[in-house]
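Hi P.,

Sorry for the delay on this. The queue was packed all week, but I finally got your sequence through. Input first:
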Amino acid sequence: MITTTNSTISSSSTTTSSYTKNEIDLDKIMRGEDKRTTFMIRNIPNKYTQQMLIDCINTSHAGTYDFLYLRIDFKNKCNVGYAFINFIDPKTVISFAREKAGKKWQHFNSDKRCALSYANIQGKDALVKKFRNSQVMFEDVAYQPKIFYSDGPNRGKEQAFPVSLDLRNSDNMQRENYVLKNSKHRHLNNNRRRQQHHRRN
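Then the structure:
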């Protein structure tokens, strides 16, 4: 739920304990009492792709965030209804909530309404640390978390995601095994062709 002194901007069902921890109070943010920057964007229609979500956010808040990840169910290639976003300035969520929260999504004629709550993992560095070792980095690049430059002339432009050395080595081993497997497969097929050729002759 997102609250201000005068009104409730949006709400979503949650337990009492998580409600207290993850509720967004815009008044506290405006007063500088809550400086958390990472949020969950919830109630996203399942057919939305990560690029569609980026395009939606960028209509009003391009260059204001440095991390975005739309969680995907890799079996059916659809999102699971929520994403993580990290704003560069904690007060950006105030205008974002007023622009998006409680409103219907643009595509697919969905009745779902955008909702926001705080994420448990906070900050770009912590998010990168979590996902740089994740198997999601083996998935199609369209499904991987995105990071963006937080400042300077490239602010808002996509930044290369740092993958851990262990994961990179694991990726290389998978590729080598794939090449070796295909090489053996081709060798067996060539042997079969030669044997068939000799039988015909």
